[in-house]
Write a structure and sequence with these properties.
The complex is a heterodimer of chains A (144) and B (141). Chain A has strands spanning 28-31, 37-40, 47-49, 54-55, 57-65, 75-82, 90-97, 105-114, 117-124, 135-143. With 144 residues, chain A is an all-beta fold. Chain B has no helices and 13 strands. Classes of the chains: A mainly beta (144), B mainly beta (141). Chains A and B meet through strand 1, strand 3, strand 4, strand 6 and strand 7 of A and strand 3, strand 6, strand 9, strand 10 and strand 13 of B.
Chain lengths: 144, 141
């Protein structure tokens, strides 16, 4: 058998990647910054899709929120709530109000106004004052 | 020492992947489509979760937008946001302050580099939203 340089070997003669023999299905090899790698689903240092924005963390929150005051008829107003873990580098991508228990109240937008502070825009499209119900809101925060 | 086929070397005797010695923590090896690759946070070919839609780019834009004044009801206005494509879906648009009686119903990319925002004015009077920095998340597929 003729000698061949290791760097010149091609499939199927080459071995699998180190560690893959015990890696869970669907995991990816990630550098540990110390010359080796581990297989995980966690992109610990962030993810950048197609050369776009580097997203360093994505967290799906599910938080019980109790609005403090009613929303005056045909107006918009913001209310803020403590949500531990949020930073001002987070963008709120989606937010779902758990129910539609108060008709005419919309929540078209949410943002992080300060560390650990979620600020929700409430819209009352009705003709009477309305009080948003206390309920669980779900939202996705992307950090960049 | 017995000879062993390269393809049969056991895990304990394997070397680390090419380039791992200089790779930053948390990076992954991404194929370049030409028989090699590099360690990167950039999934340049996109990402597909659980066999679903292939997302080829995600960008968070922070343009300064200055909407025109309009009277009560709907107003659809377009703005130049360089980089947007008609294959982008706007996941969210965030106005940084409250303007009385004003809210945003939706936003889409109506043409290349063009963001179309659907505003709604709850009042009968005129609203002139201020020029300010909006945050927009666009996901390409």
């Amino acid at each position: 058998m003729a000698a061949i340089q290791h760097k010149d070997m091609v499939s199927p003669a080459v071995h699998e990647t180190k560690g893959i023999s015990t890696a869970a299905v669907g995991t990816t090899g990630h550098s540990n910054g110390a010359g080796s790698e581990t297989y995980t689903k966690d992109f610990a240092n962030g993810i950048q899709i197609g050369g776009g924005t580097l997203v360093t963390k994505a967290v799906l929150y599910s938080v019980f929120i109790t609005p403090g005051t009613p929303i005056t008829a045909a107006t918009v107003s913001e209310q803020s709530f403590t949500v531990s873990g949020l930073t001002t580098a987070d963008t709120i991508v989606l937010h779902n109000k758990g129910t539609t228990n108060v008709s005419d109240i919309l929540t078209p937008q949410a943002r992080v106004s300060a560390v650990n502070t979620l600020t929700i825009l409430f819209v009352n499209v009705g003709g009477a004052d309305g009080f948003p119900g206390a309920e669980t809101f779900t939202f996705l925060a992307l950090r960049s | 020492m017995a000879n062993v086929q390269h393809s049969a070397i056991p895990n304990a005797d394997l070397h680390e992947p090419k380039g791992a010695s200089g790779a930053a923590s948390g990076t992954v090896y991404v194929a370049d489509g030409a028989g090699s690759g590099s360690w990167s946070k950039n999934l340049s070919g996109g990402v597909q979760i659980g066999g679903g839609t292939l997302f080829t780019k995600l960008v968070i834009y922070t343009p300064t937008l200055n909407p025109s004044a309009f009277v009560g009801g709907d107003s659809t206005q377009t703005f130049t946001v360089v980089g947007l494509s008609t294959t982008d879906t706007i996941l969210s648009i965030t106005k940084p302050t409250v303007s009385a009686d004003l809210f945003i119903l939706e936003a889409i990319v109506s043409a290349t580099d063009t963001l179309r925002i659907h505003f709604y004015n709850l009042a009968f009077g005129t609203i002139d939203p201020p020029s300010e920095i909006y945050t927009i998340v666009a996901l390409r597929s």
